[in-house]
């Protein structure tokens, strides 16, 4: 079912945790928590995924499924969450059957969804009133990072709460860093997505130009990746862009969701994002070309 | 005078070479050719720089100065050139006192100027008529790369001629690669500059956004440079951008010169460069802010 790759886990005392949301990210993240020794109760809006998780990992005797977030959260010391967007998040955490209604005081709630800083702060306030600490903890590294347990986790909230969840989050990450007060994790993820958006467009323009100029772009990419034009995107996406391959990676629909969050935050804080806003519109073109599920590097499809 | 750093040179038979243009790039490049064992005759439009070169390296007994490109080229087996732009290049190579009028048949002419593909092809044709092989060989790596002898050289022209000049060019480079027919070196450099322009703008938007959001941007850059937003620019310019330092590196005026070449070539080959064109205009804003000599990372100054 999953492609979760076991890794060497830090040895920590087993906890009772819940994981809400078994999507392409959540499923392997929950699996790493389980494989590192914890007891995991899983919940997913579509129950079949929770059943699949139980079928794959039930032999450990440490997996349970729950039919509501509230039920999953009952008895958990830490509740992890990774869902689609602000709206899903409010439902899963704040709804009548949401996690907060099931959690005990003095427990921890960790959200890995890429969401707005505002919802992060709202969830923080709701949690504090219930005696629960909330950490906004969006991740980068994509599906491969989740499967290999090598995500980067960016955390906002109280530092003491961060220190408690860090050893657990290391089960599925290579770095888990405290970024500041509630919302700072989400804001850091926004900076990440801003840097990627314009960068991928620049790489697309460079490759499309080189192809029109008749250059052997595989050689060109090898040469220029030795210098000041180098980027992770160039090294990991350049040649698949030249080969017109986009059926993998981080989907355009998700990138537009993230850029929408970014552009709304920029409306509030006054940051100027002329190229980010333009690239968001270019991604709308890619969606129209049939590329909703294509990797973000498909920006080049508008140019070739 | 110079900050040329000696390096370990490949051992090759000493040649008589000329170097035309002792700017911030040409001066250390000529010095590396000299230090690797060749006899070097230098020419510079402003004679004081040639005199300075003689003063610094005359003790080797292998330096001469010349007062015209033609005089410098006489007797040289290979003539290297690194000047400002297409116009300077035409003067230095094709003028009455230009290099081609002094060169013997069966010698080699190598141009390291970042220039248009069109002038490269014109110089190639003029050279061929005189029985001389011409290689367009723009470099990347900047002033530091030139000083440390670690440039990347992108070559266009006949492959046999490239094979002859590669061992000499390795005196000032870490990589010297054949990219294709005449003009292919310049076109490769254009791809490089396209990739950098939009990338630096994306990085600028990300950092400016993060600063407005109140994040500790040095921590943010450490975290996100571990993932898909990573770039040479982020690792080498991110923290100086946060610190508002731009008095080094590759100047905005030079970048606009290069982007002008890029945009003219795109007019010819039909490549679409929406973000590159926009960033060129943003650099015009930076010039107006007093940033003609600032590093290209100063794009962020428009946003903060």
Question: Can you give me a brief rundown of this structure?
Answer:
2 copies of one chain form a homodimer. Chain A is an alpha/beta fold and 304 residues long.
Summarize the structure in words.
- With about 300 residues, chain A is of the alpha/beta class.
- Chain A folds into 2 domains: about 15-180, Rossmann fold; about 190-300, N-(1-d-carboxylethyl)-l-norvaline Dehydrogenase, domain 2 (Orthogonal Bundle), CATH 1.10.1040.
- Chain A is built from 12 helices and 9 strands.
- In chain A, the strands form 2 sheets. In chain A, strands 3-2-1-4-5-6 form a 6-stranded parallel sheet. The first copy, chain A, has a 3-stranded mixed sheet with strand order 7-8-9.
- In chain A, α4 (about 85-95) links the parallel β4 (about 80) and β5 (about 110).
- In chain A, α8 packs across α10 (about 230-240), α9 packs antiparallel against α10 and α11 runs antiparallel to α12.
- Chain A is globular, with a radius of gyration of 20 Å.
- The two termini of chain A are about 35 Å apart.
- The model of chain A has no long low-confidence stretch (mean pLDDT about 95).
């Amino acid at each position: 079912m999953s492609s979760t790759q076991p890794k060497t886990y830090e040895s920590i005392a087993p906890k009772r945790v819940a994981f809400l949301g078994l999507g392409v990210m959540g499923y392997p993240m929950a699996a790493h928590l389980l494989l590192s020794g914890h007891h995991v109760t899983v919940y997913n809006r579509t129950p079949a995924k929770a059943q699949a998780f139980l079928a794959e990992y039930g032999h450990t005797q440490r997996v349970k499924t729950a039919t509501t977030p509230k039920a999953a959260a009952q008895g958990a010391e830490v509740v992890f969450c990774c869902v689609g967007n602000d709206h899903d998040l409010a439902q899963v955490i704040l709804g009548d059957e949401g996690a907060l209604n099931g959690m005990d005081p003095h427990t921890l709630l960790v959200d890995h969804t890429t969401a707005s800083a505002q919802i992060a702060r709202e969830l923080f306030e709701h949690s504090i009133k219930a005696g629960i600490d909330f950490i906004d903890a969006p991740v980068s590294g994509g599906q491969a990072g989740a499967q290999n347990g090598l995500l980067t986790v960016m955390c906002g909230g109280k530092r003491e709460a961060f220190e408690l969840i860090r050893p657990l989050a290391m089960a599925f990450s290579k770095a888990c860093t405290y970024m500041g007060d509630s919302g700072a994790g989400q804001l850091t993820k926004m900076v990440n997505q801003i840097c990627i958006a314009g960068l991928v467009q620049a790489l697309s323009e460079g490759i499309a130009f080189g192809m029109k100029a008749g250059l052997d772009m595989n050689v060109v990419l090898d040469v220029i990746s030795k210098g000041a034009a180098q980027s992770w995107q160039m090294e990991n996406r350049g040649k698949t862009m030249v080969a017109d391959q986009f059926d993998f990676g981080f989907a355009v629909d998700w990138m537009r969701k993230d850029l929408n969050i970014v552009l709304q935050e920029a409306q509030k804080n006054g940051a100027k994002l002329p190229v980010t806003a333009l690239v968001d519109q270019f991604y709308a073109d890619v969606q129209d070309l049939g590329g909703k599920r294509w990797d973000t590097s498909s920006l080049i499809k508008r140019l070739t």
